[in-house]
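Worked example 2:
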Amino acid sequence: MKVVQTKLKDLLIVEPNVFGDHRGWFCESYNEKVFRKIGINIKFKQDNHSYSKQKGVLRGLHFQNEPYAQSKLVRCTRGKIWDVAVDLRKSSQTYLKWFGIELTPDNHKMLFIPQGFAHGFITLEENSEVQYKVDNFYNPKTDRTILYKDPEININWPLYEVVLSDKDQEAPYLKDSDVNFK
C-alpha cells in the first residue's frame, strides 16, 4: 500500500496494491494492521454508500462538529467523482485550504480525510457510487454543511452546473457557520 501526503497536513491519498490477471483484479481496500503501519490509526465504526444517478451531483461540504467529528476513508466504486477536502482546523497551517482529487474504480485511489475537515464531491459521470468509512457515528445534532461555492474557501469545482439537495442549497457560508475545530 502506498501513501501520498497531500499539500494539506494529515490529508492522505491511499493507493492500495492491486493484483490483476486474466480474470480481473483484487485489492485490499482496508486492513487495520496495514493502516496502522502507514500511520492511520483509526477505528472505523460505520460504512456509508451513496449512489448518484446524474452527472453533476454535488454533495457537500459536510462535516460533524466536535465531539462527534469524523475521519473518512473515501473511494469511488462506480463512475467517477472529484473529491474535495477543506481544512477547517483553525490552528492548522493549512486552515481554509482545499484539495481535490479524481477518484475512480480504475485508479483505486482513496482519500483519507482526518477529523477537522469538511468533505464534498461532485459526480463526473452518471451512475456514480461512493463508499466511505467513518470513525464516528452519524450525529444529526452536530451535522453541518458549508455552501460549496463559499468565496472564502474558493473551490475550483470542475463542473458549473450542479445538482444539489435542499440541505446543500441552503447551506450557510463559513462565516455564518458554528464550526468548532481548533
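The chain is about 5% helix and 40% strand. The first helix runs from residue 32 to 37.
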